[in-house]
Amino acid sequence: MSGQENRNASKPPANRWRLWVDGCGGFLVLTGDRWTVGGAMVADKNDIAVGADLPRTAGTILRNDDDYFWENNEANTANAKPAMIQSGTALPIPGSARLNLHKSSPLSGSAVLTLDPPHRFADHIDAVILADQTILVGPTPECNVRGTMLGGNIVMTRRGNRWYGKVIGTQDLKECPIGERVEIGNVALTWETVTQ
Amino acid sequence: MTALLGKLKREKPTKKSSVASGFFDKDAGDCGLEVTQAYEPSNYSKSMSFTYPPGSTPLPRYTIRRGIGIGGFGEVYFAISAAGKEVALKRIQRNLEVELRGVSHCLNLKHPNLVALFDICHDESDQAWVVMEYVAGKNLRQVLDELPNGLNESEARRWFSAIAKGVHHLHGAGLVHRDLKPGNVFDDLGIVKVGDYGLSKFISSSHRGGHTESVGTFHYMAPEIGRGEYGREIDIYALGIMLFELLTGNVPFDGESCHEIIVKHMTAKPDLSQIGEPYRSVIAKSLEKDPAKRFATVTEMTNALSMNVDGHAATHAATHPIVAKLAETSPMEVHPLPEAQSPKPPLSAHKDCSPEPFARAVRASFSDLERWWRSLDRSPGAKAFLFLTGFFVLFINTHWLLPLLTVIGIVYVPYYVVRQMVLHVSQQPSYAKAQASANQLAALHGPSPRPMTKAQWREHMRNDLRAKHTLHRAAELNTSWITATAITMGLALCAGVIGLRSGPVDSFAIAPYGAMALVVLVASLTILGFGKLWERDEGESLPRRIVLAGVGAGVGIVAYSAYQFLMLPLDVGLGREIDSTTLPQALYWDNEIPKASAMMVHFALLFSALRWWKAVDPLRRNRLSIWSVVVAVAAEWAVHQVLPIPQPAGILTAGAIAIAIQMSAPWVNPRLWSKSKTEPAPSRNPIVPTPYPANESVANRGGVA
Question: What does pTM read for this prediction?
């Protein structure tokens, strides 16, 4: 077993949710600090499954503080070092898909993964959110989930396995029950848990 | 009108008001139908309320994941089928028949550049749902918002070629899209697709136009749409607009209001100077006002751009007869608008309505002078010295400056008057069509959500006045003139009865009243005439005062001639309250009897001093304002202090003119506004604040005596 596989096997399972934002899109929300990326057509699921000609597991995205790194699964030699991923750049994954990482705000460690057309993520989502402490949702560019139709900026935060949200600038923290549509400010969204 | 403006705002293709894009903005671009029409301006600030939450299964095989948007016909959801197929579900809530009919006609269209419609299903409560292809990419509106200067040529050609292919296929199937715009074109993961053709309508050479729904978006709306008779040429027109926008990032006809945009569509020529060939000539031909002059087919248009759209085209010969038959057997679809509400096609190209060049130059010079004066870095004392020096130089040169200005005035004022008359009359049809189109479209948009404010009401009524047909305007003017004549006669009679109550009643005694009546009549008729020309807008005060000065000079000549003809004394009542200096020799004889020039200047001052057009404005506050009469009399008295004329004839004349023009000019009672606030508007034309059709003459509303 390679060192990479060892690391994958020993990592704590990432918590997974799906976030549906009306008038905006669907997102896979992942917590934790490392996530495997691979093709969607494989039996053993990766954290991030892409409907593209990717290997079974193409590599791993690591988060250290607020920085993100890519560790290629092929380069599993002892001296291989994870490469830092700059915001707005594509991950060096093999195949035809182009997977981009965006870190929208310096105030949030969360990042977002998007795919260039014509590829899509598995499970009907539009993007993957690598969630840190908070997720910003709103129409402005600094938001992790940006939808210009949205009526205002909200911030989502996690406590245990529950998500809470509030309109930025207010104190009223609202719980988001899993499976129920919640309106926070002018944003309507629904959280779902995802079992792997 | 609110609905119109709302639609305009949400579709205006500028970065400020349009649907900007983000990484995850699938909003307008998520699905094919109607999504781009989903977002009222209010939706920007409040969340969209969808009926079905995620996880719902209103249709057994489809699970809703999220709402996409709320369109003109209903809600649109992103859903996943039991087998994992991503679809957009459109719940038809409004205009059910129209929408279902449109969609059912398009169900079997197959083309890679068209958003596919899969099926129409009904849920347990018999609610209709349209199942359609889910488009995950951005729409062209979003792409253009990100690139405000337009796309590069190759990318623009990629988009346009695909759009043209899709539209060509629609036309080949006998359909007209009718709402082509960037918001309805999607990049579906690399494949450009045209959506939102639920509004499409079957059409053939024997069956054109007519529909109860509004068509298109203002920026992409062909000028003939307002008429209700249109064919696939409207799509050619919209394609021309979109090609322009793809290359430049802007639409060729933009404006601050729907009226302005519509007027530009109907009258203005697009500025194609920044576009190279062959695009320039293709766009120019596509945007011809006359549909017959445009490209007859999409193929013709794309051939001119060296594109080929025939690759996926439907077989015209196979589909057209069937379509025509369907259309003919569907009388429900045909709702031609009444003749009165249908604006005629544009007859003439855009006329120059820019300010008069000389006046513009003078104004610009004064403006430059003012800027120079303000920026002059001198102490207040030095500035005062400069000002006094300039004034002194002007004063010592009055001996040649005044005659020169007089000559210029004699030449310029008549020229200005004629120019104003000619230009205003020539502009009339365009405004009329614009208003009629706007009213017609507004009438199709459902009730106005809230009553108009008085300012809005006035603006609407002003637009209504602007839209009046020339014939109606002439008829009203004729009525006003007849009324003014009668009122003048009546006033003269009253004055005569009062003035001649004692003493002999002979021709010499009656003559002054006749002269006054003549002057009042000429002045009233002239003011009414210009008032009729100027009722279209509030207008600028200075040009109107200049014109009225010319009118006053003419009235002065008439007055002087009448006095001379009737051998009336001109030295009666010349006394003034103010002990002024010697009267100007150019205007008065040595014995202080006024010359013709004195009468001309006197009336010119009187006419230019007051805003007489306000007294004949149909939207004035009262039919007869005593205050206006008092002001006219006071103004005459003031002018008399400077340049005396026989009195009290002058004062009586001024007062009589004020009365006659107010009593004879059309008047829209402002109480109609308060009435329109409290009463529900008629459903046929809900935004019109009065219970009268938009094109009905104001004179027919009881405004003219």
Answer: 0.48
